[in-house]
Design goal:
Layout: H1 2-12, E1 31-33, E2 39-42, H2 49-57, E3 60-71, E4 92-101, E5 105-113, E6 118-125, E7 128-135, E8 143-152, E9 159-168, E10 174-183
Antiparallel strand pairs: 1-2, 3-4, 3-10, 4-5, 5-6, 6-7, 7-8, 8-9, 9-10
């Protein structure tokens, strides 16, 4: 359920405004618009300080770190059959890497190690980073999961601290890994 929730949260952002940036989806707007669609603020000239600031805001940086995968706790209702989390395998160290934008926006990354090879895709909004973890097509075992992290600081001095929760395709293996990432 958490996987669907994170997906829904990411998909809903910016729908009213036409996209994650809240602007039109064509990306061709040359000026800002007010609520009724009329233009009232011209876009900065390409050589202006504001335009240069906007160009800088699109810069990305790679943040890397390590994790230690552990068996995750699983809570089930008393009326449900007992859950048996396989306690062996997929335990231990791994690495995690994300490419983060300077501000809010799309993030991508990858992870290798005890949880297999994972591709990461999500969003950074303020200090909140959410992502989906999907297995590389050749990965064995194949784990799927979600990632939730807190981003503190600014620029290259940012620190990303969070947790990755993943489960196997049959749901019999559930793992959790905490991490801290810093600029590479």
């Amino acid at each position: 359920m958490a996987f669907a929730w994170i997906t829904g949260d990411l998909a809903c952002k910016g729908e009213k405004g036409g996209g994650p940036s809240g602007g039109n989806s064509s990306g061709t707007s040359s000026s800002a618009s007010n609520a009724n669609g009329s233009s009232n603020v011209p876009a900065p000239a390409s050589g202006s300080a504001s335009a240069k600031g906007a160009e800088t805001a699109t810069a990305t940086a790679t943040f890397t770190g390590s994790y230690d995968s552990k068996a995750a706790a699983v809570q089930t209702p008393d009326s449900a059959p007992p859950f048996e989390n396989e306690e062996s395998g997929l335990l231990g160290p791994g690495t995690l890497s994300f490419v983060l934008p300077a501000g809010d926006g799309e993030v991508t990354g990858e992870s290798t190690g005890a949880l297999g090879t994972l591709k990461l895709h999500g969003m950074l909004e303020g200090t909140r980073l959410t992502a989906q973890a999907t297995p590389d097509p050749t990965a064995s075992p194949a784990m799927w999961g979600t990632l939730l992290a807190d981003v503190q600081g600014s620029g290259d001095a940012r620190t990303v601290t969070g947790a990755l929760r993943a489960s196997s395709d049959n749901g019999h293996v559930v793992r959790e890994a905490t991490f801290t990432l810093r600029k590479k």
